[in-house]
Amino acid sequence: MTTVEARPDLRRRPTRRPPRARRLLGLVLTAAVLALLAYLSLAVGTRTTGAGAVWDALTRYDPDSTDHLVIRELRLPRTVLGLLAGAALGLAGAVMQGVTRNPLADPGLLGVNAGASLFVVLSITLLGVTSPRGYVWFAFAGAAAAAVVVYGVAALGRDGASPLKLALAGAAVGAAFGAVTTAFLLVDQATFDQFRFWQVGALAGRGTDVIAQVAPFLLVGCVAALFLGRVLNTLSLGDDVARGLGAHVARSRAVSAAVVVLLCGSATAACGPIGFVGLTVPHVARMIVGPDYRWALPYSMLLAPCLLLSADVVGRVIARPGEVQVGIVTALIGAPVFIALVRRRHVSEL
């Protein structure tokens, strides 16, 4: 009787790349796309310039060159602001959705936009502030004040600041602040004329002085948000499970809310209210990497400025020789994308 020796299968089986490697590769590719969009933001506009002019303007600046002046004085500040504000809005949206366990939450849920708008109107009406540089501190103070009121109202009662109570308190405070803002605008035409340019949401008209004012808050907020991945993963399991795992739920929510105010308040103060970025981008990030916030947060930080810069570039070229402000373009781009995303059940659920 002969025995047949089993031969080992010498065919090489394809090895699957581990999820971590794929996610890291996705981050690198997203960063490359963001770098390309940053270049387009410097090169494209009413006056289109080439790659050589962009590089020369950054490395060998000639104040007598019109192209160099346009790039350094106009396009570079709005590109840097788009990078910072986009990252802040993306992270703020992801943190807000994680804290409230609400896929429709955005940074405005804590009343940040309403508070910033009210304080900007008050600064124009009562103090005669007329420049974005002057708006910044009032908008930031208004955003912080609104968030404190919302969190204080939601914290009343036995359960503390639960996700549902945060959403309800945010809606109530936002409506109240919005009513007061509208009342001021209706009785003062001059205030309305000043306020509408900030309210539409724009990257244009903000110089390096505005960036210098908000950059420290944006950078600190971004770093702090990236460390909240494990906290948000724990909160997403529910309050009872989170407590069982040793998490301090109230403190975690308070810290997360403070980070949202820091990020969204700074971005709103500098650019005005810009919608759909903080709402849509976290859904795209979770569609790519799943519900793990340790990955969703860095993806949101890179994807959001991609959306903001692409919207800014589109706004410059669709209405030449003028331009459409970025807040309008993000709404036109973000609304259809968000509708398509929420129709997919596994994306809309947290």
UniProtKB/TrEMBL annotation:
Species lineage: Bacteria, Bacillati, Actinomycetota, Actinomycetes, Propionibacteriales
GO molecular function: transmembrane transporter activity
Subcellular location: Cell membrane
Protein name: Iron complex transport system permease protein
Membrane topology of the entry: Multi-pass membrane protein
Membership in a protein family: Belongs to the binding-protein-dependent transport system permease family. FecCD subfamily.
Record-level GO cellular component terms: plasma membrane
Tree of life domain: Bacteria
One GO biological process term: siderophore-iron import into cell
Entry-linked Pfam families: FecCD
TM regions (residue ranges): 21-42, 79-96, 108-129, 135-154, 166-187, 210-233, 254-276, 296-314, 326-343
UniProt cross-references to InterPro entries, sorted A to Z: ABC_BtuC-like, ABC_transptr_permease_BtuC
Keywords: Cell membrane, Membrane, Transmembrane, Transmembrane helix, Transport
